[in-house]
Amino acid sequence: MAVQPVGIVANDKPLGIFSPDSSLSERDTDVTAPFSGESEDKLDYYNTRYISEKDEEEFFSDAERDEDRIKYPKGIPEGFYVTKQYFVPPEGFVNLTTNGSVGNGIDRDDINRLEITAVNVTLPIALMLLDEHTYPSQSRARKACRKGHIMIHRGPLESTTTFAAEKCSRGKVPDRVYPGDVIGYQVRLHGGFYPGFTSGTRKNDLPFDLPVLYEDDHFAIVNKPAGVVCYSQRKQGHGMMTVRAALPFVLKPPRRGTLAIMRRPASVHRLDKPTSGLLLVAKTKPAMVDLTRQFVERKVRKTYTAVVNGIPDEPRETSISSKDASEMGIDVGAGVADEYCGEWQLIDHALDDKSAVTVWRPLGYVKSMKAWDGVLTLVELKPKTGRYHQLRRHMAWVRNCPIVGDSVYDGGGDAMSLRGRGLFLCSNKVSLEHPYFNTHVGRKEWNALPDQEKYRNGIIRLSKDGQTVEVHATIDLPAKFDNFMNNEQDRHDKFNGDSKSS
């Protein structure tokens, strides 16, 4: 049954993203708008098929075959595997005759024209004789040869899992086969990667590393490196240098039985090109809808860490306690250093005529000969809203301490000397509700899991009241953060004879 994709709408903007152009991003998110999507029960996501039954079966079959590629003999060239074998009988094709039609779409004219005998048969004719269902016509058989799917092994195999490379060649339409030869049907298999993406790209060939921090059949969390865009906009020509292009090659497809699968995984939100960090990815339509809803309802809580130029002011009138921040819906649990947990700074400054709220605190200071006031500050930032460039603009415009490397908002001048290593902003923590394990069906499945799998890597846990399955992911800051701050401190000490500041 064909079903139109259902999205979530906030302020007339589609947030249930099912295409790159409608992604939830900092630029077009209005998290102050009430959730106006229909309820899960009404839409009945988990009992609705979003692709045809035939396409769904093809997806799971291809994915399972790819995952089991080690069971198949290797084909030609590298990356191809033989998934089906045809054996030419030792006596040849004795059913061939020169009297009238021989069936299988082959007639006497074919035999005479091609000079076919029982022991000397063209490759397309052999395929038709060996598998008339798959190759009902010569055109179908020729097409398989031209696409590189057919391989010929001269003589018998030494074992059913070994095709001797020196005896193999890719089958071509004019090739002949003889008694004892083995014909193989080969396809490119990636090994767990999404089926249908057979452009020749392999994980090791990707132009950047995209680590997977967490993954199940419904969604994943990946660590986006700085300098990579999430999606390539029209005519931008990023090619494979996008998260969208890389996802099918680093994530595993959902297992058979997973409902409402997406043929291609898609990120639920975006990070700016120069920003690194955690990115949520949906693998099913219900997960996409649920995660988008959580962004709209502010249930996804993100933490960023940045290095800013100078010492940000901490006015008493904008100081709030952890309790105050928590009551605002901001996750301010124990952070990097316990002594900072009690006090936070609030920035409530509208951007583009919309409410924008950020809570932040300093984590440490180092001296720098290039920084304003001679100091760089490591800060932790927790956005309540998601305006375009909110963190970058709040620190630059409200606290007059732009993030190091921000060529858009650092004001130029002396700050340009700190641009050489990119933007020092990383989304290093995220908390959310699991998009599947909190549904009626999903919770039963989760309860049945063994504890080792249920609480894998400490990322999944139950809420304090035991009612909600939560996901809490944290990554270390990129190495450039420590390297940069240590180098700046060392350079300052070398020329001034000071000891390091903490």
Which characteristics define this entry?
single chain; 502 residues; alpha+beta; twelve-stranded mixed beta sheet; four-stranded antiparallel beta sheet; 12 helices; 20 strands; 22% helix; 22% strand; elongated; disordered N terminus
Describe the 3D structure.
By secondary structure, the chain is of the alpha+beta class. It contains 12 helices and 20 strands. Strands 9, 10, 11, 12, 13, 14, 15, 16, 17, 18, 19 and 20 form a 12-stranded mixed beta sheet that branches. The longest helix has 18 residues, at 479-496. The N and C termini lie far apart (63 Å).
**Cα distance spanning the termini:** 63 Å
The poorly predicted ranges are 1-43, 97-101, 334-340
Briefly note the structural class of the backbone.
alpha+beta
Globular, elongated, flat, extended or rod-shaped: what is the shape? Answer: elongated
What helical percentage do the residues reach?
10-25%
Which SSEs are present, and which pair or pack?
Layout: E1 9-10, E2 13-14, H1 40-43, H2 53-67, E3 80-87, H3 108-114, E4 121-122, H4 123-130, H5 138-146, E5 150-153, E6 168-170, E7 176-177, E8 182-188, E9 212-215, E10 219-224, H6 243-250, E11 261-267, E12 276-284, H7 285-296, E13 301-309, E14 319-321, H8 322-327, E15 343-348, E16 357-367, E17 375-383, H9 390-398, E18 425-433, H10 440-447, H11 451-454, E19 460-462, E20 469-474, H12 479-496
Helix pairs in contact: 4-5
